[in-house]
Amino acid sequence: MIAADPLGDHHAFESQAAFQRFLGETYPQWARQVQRSLRLMALRGITEPITGLPVPAEDLVVAHANYRETIQHDGCLSRQRAVLLLLQQLMATQQLPSSQDLDVYCPEAVTGFASRLQALFPRFSGSEYLPGSDHTMLQHIPHQDLCQLTFSDSSFDLVIANEIFEHVYDLPAALAEIARILRPGGYLLGTFPFAYDRYTTIVKALHRPGASPGVAAEEELLMEPEFHGNPVDPEKGSLVYQIPGWDLLDQARSAGFAQPVIHWINAPGFGVVGQETPGVMVLAARCS
Questions:
Q1: Is 212 helix (H, G, I), strand (E, B) or coil?
Q2: To which H or E segment does residue 34 belong?
Q3: Residue 38 and residue 102: Cα distance in Å, rounded?
Q4: Against a cut of 0.90, is the pTM above it?
Q5: Are strands 104-106 and 124-126 parallel, antiparallel or unpaired?
Q6: Which residues, in sequence order, are bridge partners of residue 128?
Q7: Among 50, 65, 120, 128, which has the minimal tally of Cβ within 10 Å of its Cβ?
Q8: What angle, 0 to 180 degrees and rounded to 10, lies between the N-to-C axes of helices 112-120 and 78-92?
Q9: Which of 36-42's residues contact partners 24+ apart within 8 Å by CB, and which partners?
């Protein structure tokens, strides 16, 4: 349980089997729990993770019924506050340095969440995926390919990867690169569309050697191509290569992470609630 929020509901799972037991015990209450969470936020507002600042209910923006992707305030959504809440816990328990001393990398730079991280952490580094030397954003935004990062070994204490694992063309390589740039004891925190009802990742497209990553016409498509929003290319979006299942934890272990877990966080006091599941699911993996 997250002690700072007595109304919160926090569980951590190291395997699909453990989550399945939890699912069987709690699923009948999920719809009721979502509605209760919404009522509490409407009555009391929320507290911002990290800063502890109160946010009145009237300042929260609920754009649609997928609550994981909304309940907006100051550049943050519900799922992003779940990451910050978990980070707050890691700093409070001294598993990570304080906000002033924390070296943070996030593979996003033009989003509201990136701006929020930059305001919270003085030693923040952000980037976008900007292939092609003529991309106009390269004048003021660093380019990084998560599968081939240019940072030196052991550069960061924390990597935050939100809604990106589904888009990387070589997920094991990306996990290995993240482990490489993390210091021993550093953490990877991330969210992604999660096939929580299955062990095996759903593979939608495969990368062909020599193909341009993200270009559907050049890749091997195993299903109808799927695209999600891309802040640097909103017209085209980003190709989805996979929807991770529980085997992501095995991939993380193979990449060099110790005891990767999936956290399930429902914390209406901090503006964290899902939709299909009342909790937002966050990967936390500690670098060996």
A1: coil
A2: helix 30-44
A3: 33
A4: yes
A5: parallel
A6: 143
A7: 65
A8: 20
A9: 36/268, 37/266, 37/268, 37/273, 37/278, 38/67, 38/268, 38/273, 40/7, 40/268, 40/269, 41/71, 41/268, 41/271, 41/273
Two structure tokens written together for 176: 């290995």
Confidence of residue 6 (pLDDT cuts 50, 70, 90): very low
Structure tokens at 71: 């309940």
The structure tokens 């939709």 sit at 275
Distance CA 76, CA 48 (A): 10
Amino acid symbol at 54: P
What is the spatial distance between Cα 268 and Cα 283, in angstroms, rounded to a whole number?
20
Contacts of range 228-237, beta carbons closer than 8 Å, 24 or more positions apart: 228/163, 228/166, 228/167, 231/108, 231/110, 231/111, 231/128, 232/110, 232/128, 232/129, 232/130, 232/137
Q: pLDDT tens digits for 218-250?
A: 999 999 999 999 988 888 899 999 999 999 999
Structure-token pair, residue 242: 């996979």
